[in-house]
Amino acid sequence: MTLLLDSGALIALEKNDRAMWRRLKTALLAGRVPVSHGGIVGQVWRGGGARQALLAKALDGVDVRPLDEALGRAAGALLSRAGASDVIDAALVLLADDGDDIATSDAADLEPLAALVGRHLELLHV
């Protein structure tokens, strides 16, 4: 089981949300490196510095995958089937496997995408 992080999860870490930090540390201690992708980092990263020190620290323990052409095409195809438009959400769902957890602030957007690709995911509200 992998923990995937959307922008809401990264923002929670940046704001020092204790519950989100516990989720991250629990995954790392269990040897399960959390996953996100570069598009999500782009949604929250604003140049770093002291203001984003906690986010930078959190990202050190996250496997940030590329949002490359293959993932982009797959996300676009999923969005076409879903009648939706958020490539960032679609790409995150496509990185997940059955049984994975996604820490998210927008479960309502992710749930129909996961259903369309037949993935049973636990959407953890942050």
- The top level CATH class name: Alpha Beta
Distance between the termini: 18 Å
Please count the helical segments.
7
Q: What kind of sheet is the major sheet?
A: 3 strands, parallel
**What characteristic shape results from the CA principal axes?**
globular
What is the CATH architecture assignment? Answer: 3-Layer(aba) Sandwich
If you average the pLDDT, what whole number results? 97
* Secondary-structure content class: alpha/beta
Summarize the structure.
With 126 residues, the protein is of the alpha/beta class. It is built from 7 helices and 5 strands, in the order E-H-H-E-H-H-E-H-H-E-H-E.
Task: Describe the 3D structure.
The chain is of the alpha/beta class. The chain has one domain (3-125): 5'-nuclease (Rossmann fold, 3-Layer(aba) Sandwich), CATH 3.40.50. The protein has helices at 7-14, 18-29, 38-44, 53-60, 69-82, 87-95, 107-116, and strands spanning 3-5, 35-37, 63-65, 101-104, 122-125. A 3-stranded parallel β-sheet has the order 1-4-5, sandwiched between helices. The longest helix has 14 residues, at 69-82. It is globular and about 40 Å long. It starts with a strand and ends with a strand.
